[in-house]
Amino acid sequence: MSAYGAFLMAQHAAQRMLPVGAGAMLFTGASAGVKGFTKSSVFAMGKFALRGLCQSLAGELHPQGIHIGHFVIDGGIASTPMENAQSARLDPDAIADSYIHFLDQHRSAWAWEIELRPWVESF
Asked: What is the pTM of this model?
């Protein structure tokens, strides 16, 4: 359902955006769409498919003025302001800021994917 639901939404959105040559579709993925983890095969299948869908949509629709974005959210999201300040979880407002920045990108330098990670992650 993860990929199929996104496909159906994209299909309907594209029908409205193509005639005007503008628009944006933003999809939220996870690190499981970049790397399969033990005991997460079902989740990884959907997220890999979503990422592939976004790559294909970007190739097809970017030249027609429609900005496709895939966001890899790689970490837990804080649920309270106190948790934001004291944990390694992602701040939901900071995530939202990244989505807004993505929408404001100049067409000459569009990204199709952004990965967001906690600041304390060890690489």
From this structure: 0.88
How many domains does the chain contain in total? 1
Q: Phi, psi (5° rounding) for residue 40? A: -135, 30
Separation of alpha carbons 73 and 81, rounded Å: 19
- pLDDT tens digit string along 30-69? 988 888 889 989 999 999 999 999 999 999 999 999 999 9
| Residue 103 placed within a domain | yes
Long-range contacts of the stretch 75-80 (C-beta < 8 A, 24+) = 75/116, 75/117, 75/118, 75/121, 76/118
